[in-house]
Amino acid sequence: MTPVVLALFLAIATFVHGQAPGDGSDLCTEDSIQGFPNPFFEIRPVYSASERPLMDSRDYLRLLQESGDAYVPWQSLDRDNNNTNMVVTEWTQTGTATCQGTVTACGFSVGAQENWLITQHINTVLPGGGGERLRKVTVQFEGTLNGCDISRQCRQSFELYKWETSAIDRNGATNTNNYVRVGRVSPSVTSGVTSFVDSHNIELGTTGGFYLGVVDLSTCVTLTRILVLYYVCPEETSELISRPEAIESQSLEGSPSVEGECVENSSTESGD
């Protein structure tokens, strides 16, 4: 490939918009690369038997765009337009460890903020070909939050938004008028820098996909991981009943009801 063609390819690839799950880097998700053991696979998160990830920030080499990146999953949008030569207020990638990228927003010192972190499109149509759509997902955040006790301008929470759409938006899903607020993440922080883990359930319609927006409104936060997932009741055989894997209750309240069947050589009839 000539340098001119390569440059054109990279320029086009820069505008590729992905869809999770399935858009992660092989270096982060595969146990071997071209037949050789992949050392980065050893740091891959381990999911429980009931967890089904849809999007995990640990699956990507980079999270936000830099020159030369062929594909990154997220976008940073500065809606307040108050970046300065001294302070970059929008979401930026601060951790660059392979498959362990982190993003930070901490621009409260230069005024009120509205900085959007927008994920790639997240597909919520269940595998298997039946077309069933998830009606609830869970978003888990891990990170650090500055208590900001030196300034009343600094807030100790950030906002969550969603835009439900069945298709990838080729414009990058940056029209924030499409989004609706779904909650606020407010870790328990008193002062100083505190680590936190926080989960938030998001109800969905039947479109089969959505974009997630994380909005900084004058806080000082570093996100070390964002995980979007749903839960299942794993396949189970207990006593004489076999229960297949089933999606956990898709309402924000209540427990699932899973039908089972008798195992081989058993019966529903009671003995005398």
From TrEMBL:
Pfam families attached to this UniProt entry: Ephrin_lbd
Domain Eph LBD residues, every copy: 51-238
UniProt cross-references to SUPFAM superfamilies, sorted A to Z: Galactose-binding domain-like (SSF49785)
Signal peptide: 1-18
Gene3D superfamilies referenced in this protein's UniProt entry, alphabetically: Galactose-binding domain-like
Keywords (A to Z) from UniProt: Receptor, Signal
InterPro entries: Ephrin_rcpt_lig-bd_dom, Galactose-bd-like_sf
Annotated segments matching region Disordered: 244-272
Designated name of the protein: Ephrin type-A receptor 4-A
Source species: Geodia barretti (Barrett's horny sponge)
